[in-house]
UniProtKB/TrEMBL annotation:
Top-rank taxon, per record: Bacteria
Name of the molecule in the record: MarR family transcriptional regulator
Residue segments, region Disordered: 144-172
Organism: Jiella flava
UniProt-recorded Gene Ontology molecular function terms: DNA binding; DNA-binding transcription factor activity
UniProt keyword terms in alphabetical order: DNA-binding, Transcription, Transcription regulation
Membrane spanning stretches: none
InterPro entries: HTH_MarR-typ (IPR000835), Tscrpt_reg_MarR-type_CS (IPR023187), WH-like_DNA-bd_sf (IPR036388), WH_DNA-bd_sf (IPR036390)
Any Pfam family matching the protein: MarR
The keyword Acetylation belongs to this UniProt entry's keyword annotation: no
Lineage: Bacteria, Pseudomonadati, Pseudomonadota, Alphaproteobacteria, Hyphomicrobiales
Domain annotation HTH marR-type: ranges: 7-141
Length: 172
């Protein structure tokens, strides 16, 4: 059978790397015995990144069905980590925000996320880390018309000034 694409095409590498990163993060979360499931942590990180977004928008950005996001948000709201309020522009819709209690969850998660991040960029110097970050950011911008929030993932070290190697996950 003929090969249609090389196995190291950029698209394959991006998808496979994302899959491996997600598996590694989920394994680390389970092993660490954190207070939330990997899915709940992802949902909470998306709420933090896109504060004040509607549930349906969060589901779309996270790549899950609206009912899946609703279930995650039900559990997070039950723990007092997010708050859903009626959208001022459409009373049928709910917007979601993190609460102060979410800060402690992010603090609990940072060591795990940092360890996974360090494994991801093992062998990269600071300049290479910045180059990879900048290039992937440009790739994402090329593929989306969504506004870029500029928000950092609250569970991960900043790629700019506070890297663990310089001082302290990004999501799509």
């Amino acid at each position: 059978m003929a090969k249609l694409m090389p196995s190291n095409s950029l698209g394959f590498l991006l998808v496979d790397t994302a899959r491996l990163f997600r598996q590694e993060f989920e394994r680390a979360v389970v092993e660490a015995g954190l207070s939330l499931t990997p899915g709940e942590l992802r949902a909470l990180a998306y709420v933090a990144r896109y504060e004040g977004s509607r549930q349906a928008v969060l589901a779309d950005r996270m790549g899950v069905e609206p009912m899946t996001m609703s279930a995650y948000l039900d559990r997070l709201e039950g723990r007092g980590l997010v708050q859903r309020t009626t959208d001022r522009n459409d009373r049928r819709a709910k917007v979601v925000n993190t609460t102060e209690a979410a800060v402690s969850v992010f603090e609990e998660t940072k060591p795990v996320a940092t360890a996974v991040y360090e494994r991801l960029v093992s062998g990269f110097n600071e300049q290479e880390r910045e180059i990879v970050h900048d290039l992937l950011t440009r790739v994402r911008q090329n593929l989306t018309n969504e506004p870029q929030t500029g928000a950092e993932d609250p569970m991960m070290p900043s790629t700019r000034s506070a890297m663990p190697s310089a001082g302290m996950y990004r999501s799509a």
